[in-house]
């Protein structure tokens, strides 16, 4: 039996004009800046006008560690949002925008799948409303102004060897990880070693996703530390006088984007930091606005709960004053079998024993999320090859962990497949049983925060960091940055820093390779193991199969 591809399903969508979608949330057409007929930005005036409204219930969707078998976190986010609307609730979803890097690389898009998608799928996975381009331009404007300042006399006495601001582009390009700029003689400036990160790893991206207003955006941009002087004093974006122009470039990008699901329910799609190298959540602006215009808001955090959910709780909620009422943890029978040692090619065969062996990965995520004081429901994202015995094995295991698992068939059935999950999640959210609290206190020393996450969330025995890194953390504490949260950058595939170590490993170490101060965003990035802030393309990138067909339609996006 053949199934339509995601892009074929999206292309057949019966979309409504975006003004109708906005009206469902009380957003008048005068407060929508349309991009075509099916997407629009929501004005700052409207956002300001609803701040006195009652705050809705916040539901976070997270997942087990991703596997090549696929988990479907965004698909479940969309399906749950549709399911809540199906049972009569006023619900909206909040997800991140897609990066061109993984779209043309290996991971694919970020609009859901099957009959639980956000549309227009092609636009969302390509240029959308231009937010990522604006972020890239603002980031690289600052880069240009730093080098220009040094070229024209260097009044700030910047040490060219200590410029810490790299350039970015929204593409996977390993050749740009480590480069030398300004070659070619005096007219081109002073040569120095630098590199590129992918746009989603930019501090500007993090700032846009954490800022609460244009004034807050400009303040945060000004706080970015871009370099150090010869006597080791920090130089900020404000010192370079780039913060005003960067804010101008970002003024439209700051406004959340409104689109719709296949079932014409409202969806805010805004911001896109990766969870393995940044904080992995959509914008505070979108989430907080949705909470003022909907009774239930379903949002997601990137990759597994050890990364996205941890940062959602410890960074986004801490900074924005948010508190989740319920967490949905997505798992699949296929992924449990893979964690139990079954090769990808054999996942279609029933193997209850492998599921039992793989379930400890799920169990650890359940316990980790519970440690934040938030109730957890497991959503078993159904695949056609799943057997009743396999599904029951997952349910039995989850029950033994003091939680409950609900089978969801939203990929094939849309909202009909998530009625049970939506009903249960609404009951939990309405009960007000969440007692959310971050994992660590603001005043805890930075290295202790790193150790707390490594030991409590990853179950590591120790954190390995040399004297240079520890001294850097101490220096930042002395400079007044000790109260910042930490943003762990590590592989998404394992609780450890070894991507091949599946399941629920213990007894491992977390090696810290580098720390970066994101003073504007308000966190310290801790780069662990071999994780890269500029990914590379796989041997056969998805871009080889993306093209326009004879009808002018996009083919190959997934």
Describe this structure in words.
By secondary structure, the chain is of the alpha/beta class. It is built from 20 helices and 25 strands. Strands 1, 2, 3, 4, 5, 6, 14, 15, 16, 17, 18 and 19 form a twelve-stranded mixed sheet that branches. Strands 20-22-23-21 form a four-stranded mixed sheet. Helix 15 (352-370) runs parallel beside helix 16. It is globular. The model has no long low-confidence stretch (mean pLDDT 94).
Helix/strand-derived class? alpha/beta
Using the CA coordinates, give the radius of gyration: 23 Å
End-to-end distance: 20 Å
| Largest beta-sheet characterization | 12 strands, mixed
Annotation field: number of helices: 20
Taken from the alpha-carbon principal axes, the silhouette is globular
What is the beta-strand fraction?
15-25%
Mean pLDDT: 94
Helix content: 25-40%
Uncertain residue segments: none
What's the total count of β strands?
25
Topology:
Blueprint: H1 6-11, H2 18-24, E1 32-34, E2 40-42, H3 44-49, E3 57-63, H4 73-86, E4 91-95, H5 100-104, E5 112-113, E6 116-119, H6 121-124, H7 131-151, E7 158-163, E8 167-169, E9 179-181, E10 192-194, E11 196-198, H8 203-210, H9 214-223, E12 225-229, E13 234-236, H10 237-240, H11 243-250, E14 257-261, E15 266-269, H12 284-293, E16 296-300, H13 305-320, E17 326-331, H14 333-339, H15 352-370, E18 376-381, H16 388-400, E19 404-408, H17 410-413, H18 419-431, H19 446-456, E20 462-464, H20 467-481, E21 486-489, E22 509-518, E23 523-528, E24 547-548, E25 554-555
Parallel strand pairs: 3-16, 3-17, 4-15, 4-16, 8-11, 17-18, 18-19, 20-22, 21-23
Antiparallel strand pairs: 1-2, 2-14, 5-6, 6-14, 7-12, 9-10, 12-13, 14-15, 22-23, 24-25
């Amino acid at each position: 039996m053949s199934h339509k591809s995601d892009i074929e399903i999206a292309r057949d969508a019966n979309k409504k004009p975006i003004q109708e979608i906005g009206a469902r949330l009380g957003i008048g057409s005068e407060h929508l800046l349309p991009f075509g007929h099916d997407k629009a930005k929501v004005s700052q005036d409207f956002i300001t006008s609803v701040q006195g409204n009652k705050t809705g219930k916040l539901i976070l969707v997270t997942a087990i560690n991703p596997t090549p078998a696929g988990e479907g976190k965004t698909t479940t986010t969309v399906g749950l949002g549709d399911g809540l609307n199906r049972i009569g609730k006023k619900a909206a979803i909040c997800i991140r925008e897609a990066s061109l890097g993984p779209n043309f690389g290996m991971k694919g898009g970020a609009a859901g799948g099957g009959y639980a998608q956000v549309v227009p799928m092609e636009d969302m996975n390509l240029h959308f409303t231009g937010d990522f381009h604006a972020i890239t331009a603002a980031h690289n404007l600052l880069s240009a102004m730093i080098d220009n300042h040094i070229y024209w006399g260097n009044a700030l006495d910047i040490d060219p060897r200590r410029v810490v601001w790299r350039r970015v582009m929204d593409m996977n390009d390993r050749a740009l990880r480590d480069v030398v700029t300004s070659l070619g003689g005096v007219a081109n400036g002073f040569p120095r070693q630098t590199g590129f990160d992918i746009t989603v790893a930019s501090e500007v991206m993090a700032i846009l996703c954490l800022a609460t207003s244009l004034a807050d955006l400009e303040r945060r941009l000004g706080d970015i530390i871009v370099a150090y002087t010869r006597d080791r004093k920090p130089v900020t974006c404000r010192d370079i006088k780039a913060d005003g122009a960067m804010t101008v470039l970002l003024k439209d990008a700051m406004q959340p984007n409104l689109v719709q699901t296949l079932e014409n329910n409202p969806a805010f799609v805004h911001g896109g930091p990766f969870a393995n190298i940044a904080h992995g959540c959509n914008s505070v602006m979108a989430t907080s606005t949705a909470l003022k215009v909907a009774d239930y808001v379903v949002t997601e955090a990137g990759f597994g709960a050890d990364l996205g959910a941890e940062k959602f709780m410890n960074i986004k909620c801490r900074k924005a004053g948010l508190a989740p009422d319920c967490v949905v943890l997505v798992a699949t029978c296929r992924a449990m079998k893979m964690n139990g040692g079954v090769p990808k090619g054999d996942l279609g065969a029933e193997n209850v024993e492998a599921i039992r062996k793989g379930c400890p990965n799920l169990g650890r995520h359940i316990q980790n999320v519970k440690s934040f004081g938030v109730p957890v429901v497991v959503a078993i994202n159904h695949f056609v090859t799943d057997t009743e015995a396999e599904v029951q094995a997952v349910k039995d295991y989850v029950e033994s962990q003091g939680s409950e698992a609900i089978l969801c068939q939203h990929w094939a059935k849309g909202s009909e497949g998530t009625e049970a999950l939506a009903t249960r999640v609404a009951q939990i959210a309405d009960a007000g049983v969440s007692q959310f609290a971050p994992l660590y206190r603001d005043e805890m020393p930075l290295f202790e925060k790193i150790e707390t996450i490594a030991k409590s969330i990853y179950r590591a025995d120790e954190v390995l960091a040399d004297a240079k890194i520890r001294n850097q953390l101490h220096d930042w504490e002395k400079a007044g940055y000790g109260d910042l949260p930490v943003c762990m950058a590590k592989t998404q595939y394992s609780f450890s820093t070894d991507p091949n170590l599946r399941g629920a490993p213990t007894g491992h170490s977390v090696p810290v390779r580098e720390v970066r101060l994101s003073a504007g965003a308000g966190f310290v990035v801790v780069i662990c193991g071999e994780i890269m802030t500029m990914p590379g393309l796989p041997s056969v990138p998805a871009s080889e199969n993306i093209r326009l067909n004879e009808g002018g339609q996009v083919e190959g996006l997934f």
